[in-house]
């Protein structure tokens, strides 16, 4: 598993220096993605409106599926059927509710900016709550995927123990990263005290 030459580049959108980069493990594939691409590629794992990562997929009666992709949104997060179409409202009751998730609805939609506003007076502490939530969601998904792989590899075979260890290591890293991200999200301004090697 050789890391890509540029460790800060997003493997999906090719953005060279995204403000954050997360490592995602799938099978034997290790990719580095910016939060936006990570979320867009794992749309089935969270609600694209409130950005809650699903512990379990919500039941069909409590969620609505995007018309274009298969992502599910909490029923109460989805906007009500557009009032502008009231002319035809009589024809459809609740199950005629057609829903397109935000990224499908707007091709320019992004969960997280590819680069943070370069206004010189701001730094990463000025991350808006919504963006912070997107970042936490992305980090949580990275953790979940890494754990998943670690578990699978562990089950798979003892001879793969090195890879399993590697994946577990990644899961741990992702978890530490998630804590950092949560600190940022909760507005703790003191920069991370954590040193690269003090949680081994
Ligand atoms: Zn990207
Ligand atoms: Zn929701
Ligand atoms: Zn969609």
Automatic annotation (TrEMBL):
It comes from the Eukaryota. GO terms for molecular function: zinc ion binding. Keywords: Coiled coil, Metal-binding, Zinc, Zinc-finger. Residues 136-170 form a coiled coil. This is Uncharacterized protein LOC108858077. It comes from Raphanus sativus. The lineage of its organism: Eukaryota, Viridiplantae, Streptophyta, Embryophyta, Tracheophyta. The gene is LOC108858077.
């Amino acid at each position: 598993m050789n890391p890509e030459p540029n460790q800060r580049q997003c493997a999906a959108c090719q953005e060279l220096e995204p403000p954050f980069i997360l490592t995602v493990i799938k099978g034997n594939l290790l990719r580095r993605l910016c939060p936006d691409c990570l979320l867009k590629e794992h749309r089935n794992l969270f609600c694209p409106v409130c950005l809650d990562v699903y512990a379990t997929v919500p039941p069909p009666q409590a969620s609505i599926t995007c018309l274009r992709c298969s992502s599910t949104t909490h029923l109460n997060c989805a906007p009500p059927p557009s009032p502008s179409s009231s002319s035809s409202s009589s024809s459809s009751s609740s199950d005629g509710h057609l829903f397109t998730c935000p990224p499908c609805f707007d091709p320019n939609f992004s969960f997280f900016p590819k680069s943070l506003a370069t206004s010189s007076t701001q730094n990463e502490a000025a991350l808006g709550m919504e963006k912070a939530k997107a970042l936490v969601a992305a980090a949580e998904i990275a953790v979940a995927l890494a754990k998943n792989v670690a578990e699978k590899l562990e089950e798979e075979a003892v001879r793969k123990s090195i890879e399993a260890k590697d994946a577990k290591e990644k899961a741990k890293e992702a978890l530490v990263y998630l804590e950092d991200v949560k600190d940022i999200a909760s507005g703790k301004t003191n920069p991370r005290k954590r040193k690269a090697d003090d949680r081994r």
